[in-house]
Amino acid sequence: MSAKGKIKFEEAMQQLEEIVTNLERGDVPLEEALDQFQRGVGLSKICKETLQNAEKTLTKIVEENGEETLFENESDSNE
């Protein structure tokens, strides 16, 4: 998958949904189903990595002095 790093999250999700729909129909030849399944696993990994990176970014707060702090720690101290 040479375009692995270039595919956008939304595109990967759309392709993954299409693969799932095709496989759920059950009328795909075995070899094609295996190829689609493997492609789906790769797309799933891309989506997972993208979401994990987004979560890491969103759980940090940049303080006024430029220092990053985990958002969870900040919210815990406010309770």
Automatic annotation (TrEMBL):
<dbReference type="GO" id="GO:0005829">
    <property type="term" value="C:cytosol"/>
</dbReference>
<protein>
    <recommendedName>
        <fullName>Exodeoxyribonuclease 7 small subunit</fullName>
        <ecNumber>3.1.11.6</ecNumber>
    </recommendedName>
</protein>
<comment type="subunit">
    <text>Heterooligomer composed of large and small subunits.</text>
</comment>
<dbReference type="GO" id="GO:0006308">
    <property type="term" value="P:DNA catabolic process"/>
</dbReference>
<keyword id="KW-0269">Exonuclease</keyword>
<dbReference type="Pfam" id="PF02609">
    <property type="entry name" value="Exonuc_VII_S"/>
</dbReference>
<comment type="similarity">
    <text>Belongs to the XseB family.</text>
</comment>
<keyword id="KW-0540">Nuclease</keyword>
<dbReference type="GO" id="GO:0008855">
    <property type="term" value="F:exodeoxyribonuclease VII activity"/>
</dbReference>
<keyword id="KW-0378">Hydrolase</keyword>
<dbReference type="InterPro" id="IPR037004">
    <property type="entry name" value="Exonuc_VII_ssu_sf"/>
</dbReference>
<dbReference type="GO" id="GO:0009318">
    <property type="term" value="C:exodeoxyribonuclease VII complex"/>
</dbReference>
<keyword id="KW-0963">Cytoplasm</keyword>
<dbReference type="InterPro" id="IPR003761">
    <property type="entry name" value="Exonuc_VII_S"/>
</dbReference>
<comment type="function">
    <text>Bidirectionally degrades single-stranded DNA into large acid-insoluble oligonucleotides, which are then degraded further into small acid-soluble oligonucleotides.</text>
</comment>
